[in-house]
Amino acid sequence: MEPRGFCAGVKTAINTVVRLAEKYPNETIYIKHKIVHNSEVIRELQEKYHVVFVEKLSEIPNGARVVFSAHGTPPNVYAEAKERNLKVTDATCMLVEKVHSKAKEYAKQGVSIVLIGHNGHQEIIGTMGQAVMHLVENTQDVEKLNIEVNAPVAYITQTTLSIYETKNIELALRNKFPNLFFSRDDICYATTNRQEAVMSVINKIDFLLVVGDESSSNSRRLVETAQQRGINAYLISSFKDIKSAWVLGVRSVGITSGASAPE
Would you state the pLDDT for residue 186? Predict the structure, then answer.
């Protein structure tokens, strides 16, 4: 089903790496974290362009060339890169940058910030480095927030969440904080479009296949979108992952993909 293939942010990030590798063929291009969450893409970049993926800047020689991934990077990592004289190319997704800008603006205004997202995700690490904020993953976390109920509060969201996943959390925030800044959610349009596409066929299919990587948040959300509505859904990285038992008695199958899965 449409849409499928890379979203704009993923295309930009991958093209950034390819251009650098072709422009500087005699240099090793280091990439902090997976440029995108898709193991097939990572393998292809490693084999074709000999790029090296690292999780810590300490793994990169001083003065080398490094690309920061699409998921966003906290300010302290930029500072460390500057100290090490690393040649930095920033491939942060433009929508993630927008969330970072909102966080910094809210902080300037003295507003308490609540971030809706999944603890430990690379995008969350980058966003939480922009300002002091409170992370919530569910409505229970909202109840535990140590913020004065009448204080001005604003919320921002991880861009790869499900709009159906965040709905109840946003409602809980509005119910708890009367001075909540009403914010259009920050979920990526490519993610939302795919979720809506799944919803449009949910009553026409017996089960759903989502092509994507296990580490891809937006791909896992597509699986959950179907499962929450009683449809069996499976995340696969290739046709080899499909099990024959899944299709027994099945007449209609939906197929979609995450925003970091190649066409």
Answer: 84
